[in-house]
Amino acid sequence: MTPTSTYRLQLQPAFPFSAAAAVVPYIAGLGVSHLHLSPVLEAVPGSAHGYDVTDPTRVRAELGGEAGLRALADAARAHGLGLVVDIVPNHMAAVPRHSPALWEVLREGPSSPYARWFDIDWEAGGGKVLLPVLGGRFGDELAAMRVEGDVLHYGEHRFPLRGPVPDEVGPAELPELLDRQWYRLGWWRLARTELNYRRFFTVSELIGVRVEDPAVFDVTHAKILELVRDEVVEGLRIDHPDGLADPEAYLRRLDEATGGTCWTVVEKILTGDEHLQPGWPVAGTTGYDALRRIDGLLTDPEGAGELVTLFREFAGPPGDRGGYWEATVRRAAYRVVTRELAAETDALTRLAGRICSADPALRDHAPWALRTAVRELLVRVPVYRPYRTGGEDVLTLRAAASAKAAFTVPEESMAVDVVRDLALGRLGDGPDHEAFRARFAQTASALRAKSVEDTALYRYTPLLSANEVGGDPGRPAVSPGEFHAYCERLARDWPTTGTVLTTHDTKRSADVRTRIAVLSECPDRWDAFVRRVGEEAGRLEGGRAPDPQLAWVAWQTALGFGFPYEERLQSALLKGAREAGLHTGWTEPDESYEKALTDFVSAGPAGPPLYSVALFSRELDPYARANALGAALLHLTMPGVPDLYQGTEREYLALVDPDNRAPFAEGPANEKTALTQVALRLRGERPEVFGASGTYVPLEVTGPAAGHALAYCRTGEVVAAVTRLSLRLERSGGWGDTEVLIPPGQWADLLGGRTFGGGPVRVAELFGEWPVALLERRSA
What we know:
The chain is α/β, with parallel strands linked by helices.
C-alpha cells in the first residue's frame, strides 16, 4: 500500500517499540497513513540511531524484540496506520563483541562461511584484516591487552583467538599469539592508509557488506522480508544506496523479493539538476531534492548574493572562509581524498595496476600516475557517484582534460583515460574490471559526502539555511518557475516519491532554516546586527570569537533558534568547527581554540547579548511565520509522499545530530499543527488528488507583487497558495491588486472557513489572516 503520508519516529532504548505504540493514537490523529521507523534490527547496545547493525537476522532486543515490533504493528493497524521501516544494506558495525558474523570471520578467517558477508581485501592485508582500534602504537598498547580463555580483551573491545591458546599468556608471548590471528590490531591512525575493508564513508567502525552476493542478500534480508510477507511492514526506506556495488541490481533483487508490494524509497542525494536513475524499481527518493526546492523558493536570490559579499568582508578572504562555493568543495575534496580516503585511493590504484599489468595494451602505466589519475578524477565527480546509465555525463571529457592538467609530462597523463574508461566499464568485463567500476563509484560517493556534507558545508557559510544535505549554497535560491517545473516532473515521473523538510540527518530543522532564510531578504539589517552584537560580546570576558567565520555562524544559529540554548549551541558549533577542519578537528583537536569557542558562546550568543538576539528575532517573527507555514503547506500538498519528522507538526527547533535525535515527546499544538492536520486529513480523504494519478498545474499570478505568491492546483480539486519573501513584499508596499487565477468552481477555504468562486481572486483576500491558503473544490 502506498502511503498518503508518513511520520518518522527515531527509535532508541529511551524510546522503544512500546513507547511508539503509546503515541500511535496521537500520530493517527494528525492524519498520516503510516509510521516511519528508524532501523529496527539488532544494533550496538545503547545506539541512539540503529544504523550500526550488528545482526540483521534479529529484531533489536533493546527496542522490545520482534514481539514488541509486531505489537506496535498491531497497535498501528488498529488506528489505521501501516509501518515503513528504515533498512541498512550497505554496512554493519565493525564491533566484533556484538556482531556474531564478524566474530566468526575474525576467528576462522577467509574460510569462514561469513567471510563473504564483508567487503574485505584479504590480499591487501597480507591475509589479515586490519582493525584500527588501538589508542596508540601496537607496542605501546600491549600492556593494556589481556587474554582470558580464547578471548583477547583490550579496553571495551573483545576479539576471538584461534588456537592453540596457552593457559597463560604473558606480555612476551602475546605478540606471537596475535601474529597467528586472522586480524591485525593497529593504531587507529592507520585507518587512513592501511585499512583493507570497505567502510561507510570514513567511519572505520562500520564495515561494508557485500549484498551484491545473492547468498549474502538472502541471509541479511531474511528477517525484513519475513516482516514484509507477514504484512508487519508495508514500506521500506533504503539507507545510503550509493555505497552499494550495484544499486540498481540490489533494488531489482529487493523488488523481486518483496513481490513488488512495498512502497520503497532510497536515500539518494541528487546534486543540482541530477535526476534519479530511471530504471530503478522504486517510488523515488527520501526527499532531500524536494527540501532544496522548498528552501530555495523561500530564499531571496538578490539578498543571498549580498550576504556572500558581506560574509567575505566579515570573515576575511584567507582560504575557504572567503572563497567561492565550488572552490571550497574542490579544496575539501582534495583534503579528504589524500587523507581520510587515502586507503580507498590506494585500493583503486592497486586494482588499476593489476588490470594494466594483465593487458599488453595498458602496461607501463606507473602506479603514481594511476594514483594521480584516480585522485584527479574522483575530485571532479560533480555528483555522489557515476552510474552505468549517464556515466559519461558525469565523468566527462572536460573533466578528464582538467584532470590531465595535474601531470607535468603529457605522456603520463594518458593514465587519466585508462582510469576514466575503467570507471565507465569500457575496458573489459572481468572480475577486476567490474570491481574497479564499483569501487570507484563507491569511493566517489564517500568522497562527495565527506567533502561536501561534512566539510564544505561547514566552511562556506554566508546563509546557513542553504547549507543542507543535497543543497547548493552556491546557488541557494529557486525561482517560482523552477519550482513549478520540478513539481510537474515529479507528478509525471515520480508521483509517489518521498518528500521531507526535516530528518534525523538535517543540519538544522526546517523551522530553524526558514527563520534564517529571512536574512536573505534583509542583508543590511543582518550586517548591522552581527557587527553590533559582536561589539557587545567583545566587551565581555571571553566574548570575542576565536575567528570571524565562527562568529558569523554562531549569531545566525542563535537567530535560527530564536533563543540560544547554551549547551545545544555549543555542541553544534563545536561539531561544525571540527568538521570544517580549519582550526580544530576530530583527530587533532586544538584545545585552546575549542575553549575560546565555548567561552565565546557563553559570553556572546548565550550571554548578555542574547537580549539583542531576542529583539532581532522578534522583528523577524512575522516573516519567519510566513516561511514556516509556507514550507509546511508546500511539503504537504506538492507531488510526493510527505514524511514528517517527529515533532515537526508544531514548532521544532533542532540543530545537527545528536541534537535532533532526542526521544519523541508530545508538545503543545499551534497554528502549524492545525495546518498540518487539515492538509494531512485532506490527503487521506482524497488520495486520488495527491496520488500516482494526480496532476500538478501551476496557477497564474498577476499584478505588482506576482513574484511573492506561488499557487498550484492538484488534479483540479485542491488549490494551494503560499507567500514567499514576505519581508521584501512588505517593503515594496504589499499585495496591491495582485491576483491569482483560480480554476472554475466553488472553493472552500479549509483554513479560513470562507468560500471563493473561480476566476481572478485578489491575493490579499485569498490569504486573509494566514500567509497561505488551502482550497478544496466543492462544486463545478
